[in-house]
Write a structure and sequence with these properties.
313 residues; alpha/beta; Multidrug-efflux Transporter Regulator, Chain: A, Domain 2; Methyltransferase, Methionine Synthase (B12-binding Domains), Chain A, domain 1; Rossmann fold; 3 domains; 8 strands; disordered N terminus
Length: 313
């Protein structure tokens, strides 16, 4: 049974900001996945954002500007041009986002029909057309994730058999894997090795996370079959990889997942980062030197940190 191990948490309250009231440009860049140079260019070209300066003349951003920039990033992910978005007033940006969300939101009944009884060819065509129309980020959040959720619930309720479950999940996986190959990043981008570790078998969540990592400027090598943990360090070194991404579904006991993470962290070169997510890791924190990511919205921030680390001597 395929399951979605990276859990998307949608927060419609765009005004709520965690952490400090004032944020440096470097912190803002890491949080939003927007380059420091891009933020400076927007300030020069559009007169916004308008950061304050600290005692040393360094840019600092208020909580309200962080929230507005987060909204700008979401609109750009929907395909809007930065110039158009940045010339709008805050209320105009919010209205535009609401329009996109309304247009991109999946028709549950249509998705349910795909899960329950769509012929194989129609299923593949529908998913491909949605990806082309919505773009990758929106497709992942508003089609792939709800589809996987519906698929799991239909299987659990006995509405579909294991054969139908495999048909639908394989159609989605084939589409996403093709997209991963077609959108390969440059060789200068941070390298990611995406793997599942024995006895884990579920790949869809890791595939979605890998696509978002690549969409955010990383070069991803996704291994299709499960590997023993002892094989990962040499493979990571051979690529070479800046980070290793892993996923553990709810079918994997939490103790097993944590044991794998600790063992792999011990075996890996300390310079190679680790990011891990999945249902087995829900509400887990404090694994030393491992970024626990059970929210796909965090992928951009992790990718930005890798890019920043690469740019430093």
């Amino acid at each position: 049974m395929s399951s979605f191990p990276f859990i998307v948490k949608v927060n419609a309250n765009l005004s709520r900001t965690k952490g400090k009231v004032l944020t440096s440009i470097q912190e803002l860049s890491r949080e939003l996945g927007i380059g420091v140079d891009t933020l400076r260019a927007w300030e020069r070209r559009y007169g916004w954002p308008q950061p304050r300066r600290d005692g040393r003349g360094r840019r600092i951003y208020s909580a309200s500007q962080r929230d507005e920039l987060r909204l700008v990033r979401r609109l750009i992910d929907f395909g809007e041009r930065p110039g158009k978005v940045l010339r709008l007033e805050p209320a105009g940006r919010l209205r535009l986002l609401q329009e996109h969300l309304a247009a991109a939101g999946p028709d549950d009944e249509t998705l349910r029909s795909l899960v329950l009884d769509a012929p194989a060819a129609a299923l593949a065509d529908d998913l491909r057309h949605r990806l082309e129309r919505q773009g990758l980020e929106v497709f992942v959040h508003h089609t792939a994730v709800p589809l996987i959720d519906l698929l799991g619930r239909a299987w659990s309720a006995g509405e579909i058999g294991i054969g139908r479950e495999h048909l639908v999940s394989d159609a989605l996986e084939d589409l996403l894997r093709g997209e991963l190959v077609q959108t390969a990043a440059s060789q200068d981008a941070p390298g990611i090795l995406s793997v599942i570790i024995n006895p884990e078998r579920h790949r869809l969540g890791l595939l979605l996370a890998s696509l978002l990592l690549q969409h955010n400027g990383c070069r991803v090598q996704l291994i299709r079959e499960p590997l023993p943990v002892e094989d990962v360090p040499d493979l990571a070194a051979s690529l070479p990889a800046d980070a290793v991404a892993l996923s553990f579904s709810r079918q994997t006991p939490r103790t097993t997942a944590l044991k794998v993470l600790v063992e792999l962290r011990d075996r890996l070169d300390p310079r190679v980062r680790m990011i891990a997510g999945g249902g087995a890791l829900d509400n887990v924190s404090g694994v030393p030197n491992v970024h626990i990511c059970c929210d796909l919205a965090e992928i951009g921030t992790f990718a930005a940190r890798l890019q920043q680390a690469r740019s430093q001597p």
